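Annotators were shown the component list below and the corresponding predicted structure, then asked to write short factual statements about the assembly.
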Amino acid sequence: MKKKSIKIAMVGLGTVGSGVWKILSQQRQLLEQRIGAPIEIKWVAVRSLRKKRNFALPKSCLITQTDLIFNDPEVQIVAELMGGVSEAKKIVLKALKKGKHVVTANKALIAECGSELFHAARQAKRDLCFEASVGGGIPVLRALREGLAGNHLHSIYGIINGTCNFILTEMLHKQMDFHQALKKAQELGFAEADPSFDIQGVDAAQKLAILIAMAYGVEIPANKIHTEGIEPISLLDMQNAQRFGYQIKLLAIAKSVRGQVQARVQPTMIAQDSMLAAVQGENNAVLFDGDFVGQTLLYGKGAGSEPTASAVVGDIVEIARNIQVGVSEAVAPLGVSVESLKAAKIQPIDLLKSEYYLRFQVIDRPGVLAKITQILSQYKISISSVYQHGHQSGEEVSVVVLTHEVLEKNLQQAINKINRLSFVRAATTIIRVEA
Amino acid sequence: MKKKSIKIAMVGLGTVGSGVWKILSQQRQLLEQRIGAPIEIKWVAVRSLRKKRNFALPKSCLITQTDLIFNDPEVQIVAELMGGVSEAKKIVLKALKKGKHVVTANKALIAECGSELFHAARQAKRDLCFEASVGGGIPVLRALREGLAGNHLHSIYGIINGTCNFILTEMLHKQMDFHQALKKAQELGFAEADPSFDIQGVDAAQKLAILIAMAYGVEIPANKIHTEGIEPISLLDMQNAQRFGYQIKLLAIAKSVRGQVQARVQPTMIAQDSMLAAVQGENNAVLFDGDFVGQTLLYGKGAGSEPTASAVVGDIVEIARNIQVGVSEAVAPLGVSVESLKAAKIQPIDLLKSEYYLRFQVIDRPGVLAKITQILSQYKISISSVYQHGHQSGEEVSVVVLTHEVLEKNLQQAINKINRLSFVRAATTIIRVEA
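Structure shown to annotators:
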């Protein structure tokens, strides 16, 4: 007896959409074995029917009107793969309202409108899955929501922007400066023509907001996350980091600090021999520190058509398996009931305590180091190492200072004061060190 | 309104059991939030009521008779945490028969009796979860069964025995020989008094059997897996590996090769800058290579009371969430229906193609290298590098050869022949290289 197929509709057939199409058609047999019923793509909504595509697709399933999907009672799962926020939001809300389960790969959508969508899913008693929104193909959210469900998380460290990690890796390995490495990333397709969304840390902040929501069952707007990009990082800083046994990575960091959440995206120095430092090129990784499980890391491809599609298909399989046993909402989108969501209490960045790497660009003349260290000590900043690169009296040199743990507020005040000194030639570079 | 609690019974209160008790009692509130109902431990079956335990436990729940559990209709989940095979198997089968869902951390049980237990679960229409059996706290099996469900796996590489990885890491970092490192592992509690189960690779083979069963939907007896331990690895080999840009790890390897499964546990040389090489000490990691997701790695603590208990509790949460929505068997134990399980077609080890590291212990005299290379070429073994350590005519030296890809069968024949040469002083060390 042939089993009844589970019918899905896709909205969007770009990078991720074409990957999903490819997996669902090539792995038909494998998926049927794993779900217990075949998956059938009934509709694929696209902007234009005329666009040339480099893979075969039956014309009969291509449509431009999404209403056909919503009004088709056979469609059980809608995969939103169009990107953008406002149109995508309408599609997801309408699909839920019409009784469809929804899978999306859209991080901006979940980060900006998650709470509203989760409530809509709850009301419709339908599943809303978004594994692909963080870490591409890596099953990061599922691990957090399920495998680590017995843990309270002390911290999350994520390398969740492949563009930035590619650029930093290139800088280090090829001894390039930032702009050379960015250019290479653009040539290879790892960075957009306008890379600002990635290199300024905005993309990582959106993904961090999703991780925090799931880890702590709170709502946190991505724009409330303290975010710094990688543009200020120079090759000299990368080399200095190495000298002290560190590597610089753009980290998305969340910590649980006495009932508050510390949330920030910053270039960060981490130990050379740590697992995160081993994450090279465009790869992503997330390190969870749970109170019972300890440090657990997930690593893999954080972007690209096929890895991202793999995560979307993982979600489709989950929902399809649930459809097979006649159940929905076995696990809430964030792993806790949407009614219990609260606004996150975010720790003000001023209250951050960290070790710091400071690079001062100064004119090399007697008394310079004395003046700098005097101001640092005035703000209770204690020094663990000093390193001066080059010694040519009267010329510009860089003085590098590593501090013990200090309060961000004190540090900023001290640096402001130092930056105004006459012998300081450029704004001091500040990089946090996670020891 | 107070929600009805989900009642569980534990069998065993040793290392893992006490960890599970700790998590379930300390994370009561967190778990209730994540499940939607409180978890209550109703019974804990132990061997002796008199044993002293270093944590508080209400005496009323301690029992020695497991029948109390089976006959208690309130108990919905049984956690088998006693270890061993024959008794544990009876417990699991009886629990399933009595309509309980089962969670176990018992790798030997699943590896040896998995198929029988999965059939029993199917018949009873109950869930059987065993995340903790591979990789301790790392949600490896869940990732494979769910997140990566859209992929066919080209390969699996696992560092899944913490004892061996600890010993190899110590040898490399402290320049110890195997026996010194083993002694240290025993002192620190990372190795048993009788370490043979771990260092001979048997433990890793059992875990690999579980990974293969889940990845490929096949039955594979652990004792059919070609298994080599780490005892033959000398400090000299570790140093030589480093010289060529490699590190030696005990890897559990599965590959899909034209409809067959290649399955083996062996000390293996891997690239120094790979993610697996970054796995230090007693930590575990599994690297999946899926046809769409690409390389995906999960890393963390592979043993120990609390990490293992974290995985057990993850399984309990999964089952409890399903109980809340009134469903079981949403996902089959292996992710595919038990009826579709077939015996694995295992590739004979003779047909393995690999690059090799060979260390010959020979008397240094003219013509030795010529004779060795002549025999190698006779068996179509082509050499990529040669390195000779020390040159003292008439004394024993080691000659290291790295080969290009060759057939295992040819290699074994060549080495057998070489080992019989008069100037060869010890059996040649053979280590596979995964490039």
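Statements collected:
1. The mean pLDDT of chain B is 96.
2. Chain B has 14 helices and 19 strands.
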